[in-house]
Amino acid sequence: MRILITNDDGIHAPGLKTLHKIATDLAGPDGEVWTVAPAFEQSGVGHCISYTHPFMVAQHGERSFAAEGSPADCVLTALHDVMPERPDLVLSGVNRGNNSAENTLYSGTIGAAMEAALQGIPAIAMSQYFGVENRDLDDPFECAATHGLDVIRQILAAPQTSETADYRLFWNVNFPPVSAKDHKGVRLSAQGFRRDTDFGVEPHMAPSGRRFLWIKGGPQTTPTLPGTDAADNLAGYTSVTPMRADLTDHATLAALKESFGQ
């Protein structure tokens, strides 16, 4: 198997090292693992692409490259410049922090998987929830490192539906904020929504007297509804959520057609 790995935390991020080990085990002795990751952190850029300016690509190893662009740029770089053949699978992560609930919409980790799906390649985004039970471990990515390979194999073995659709399926996987031994299993979960918490800004004054704004996220311990990703993660389960890039609300579209005379 030929696998491309990327992330949004940057090419030197510890989560990418975890993902490389998972991908190497998955690819097997006759497989290949290629890395094309951002040269510096790109958290929160979503599905952004560098449409209006060029960027440089530097080779770090035999199959390792850093691109001065977004995670989606990295996927485009791999597919259309760096790799001699298209990968069989794209893995994105392992992100430092969860991409559950509304975080999904901001995530560059998700953006890379989405771009791979738009290019017609199976893709899985993987993130490690951080919390009081795992953030101070010797390896806070322990849960993802221990259980990640099995989760990917379960996803790849599952029946794949509608893979001729224009908007191909990709997967959002979030490992819970617990140690590997306290991991309770895997749940198929819908994307949740954290009520009474959202992103905002926090002003700060620089020593120069200039005023700056920092983007500030809400509490990550706020549970979502039962059966959704963050709720399952906080209960000790890995959430697996199938996704597509089609943003159409099909139920509302169908309901409104009669009132619009269509």
TrEMBL record:
Subcellular localization, as worded in the UniProt entry: Cytoplasm
EC number, as in UniProt: 3.1.3.5
Primary localization: cytoplasm
Residue ranges of domain Survival protein SurE-like phosphatase/nucleotidase in the record: 3-195
A Pfam short name: SurE
InterPro entries, sorted: SurE, SurE-like_Pase/nucleotidase, SurE-like_sf
Binding site for a divalent metal cation: 8-9, 43, 95
Cofactor: a divalent metal cation
Keywords recorded for this protein, A-Z: Cytoplasm, Hydrolase, Metal-binding, Nucleotide-binding
The reaction(s) this protein catalyses: a ribonucleoside 5'-phosphate + H2O = a ribonucleoside + phosphate
GO cellular component: cytoplasm
Gene3D superfamilies: Survival protein SurE-like phosphatase/nucleotidase
Molecular function as annotated in GO: 3'-nucleotidase activity; 5'-nucleotidase activity; exopolyphosphatase activity; metal ion binding; nucleotide binding
Signal peptide: none
Cofactor binding comment, as recorded: Binds 1 divalent metal cation per subunit.
Highest taxon listed in the record's lineage: Bacteria
Task of the protein: Nucleotidase that shows phosphatase activity on nucleoside 5'-monophosphates.
Family label: Belongs to the SurE nucleotidase family.
HAMAP family (UniProt xref): SurE
PANTHER family: 5'-NUCLEOTIDASE SURE (PTHR30457), 5'_3'-NUCLEOTIDASE SURE (PTHR30457:SF12)
This protein's name: 5'-nucleotidase SurE
Organism this protein belongs to: Halocynthiibacter styelae
Classification of source organism: Bacteria, Pseudomonadati, Pseudomonadota, Alphaproteobacteria, Rhodobacterales
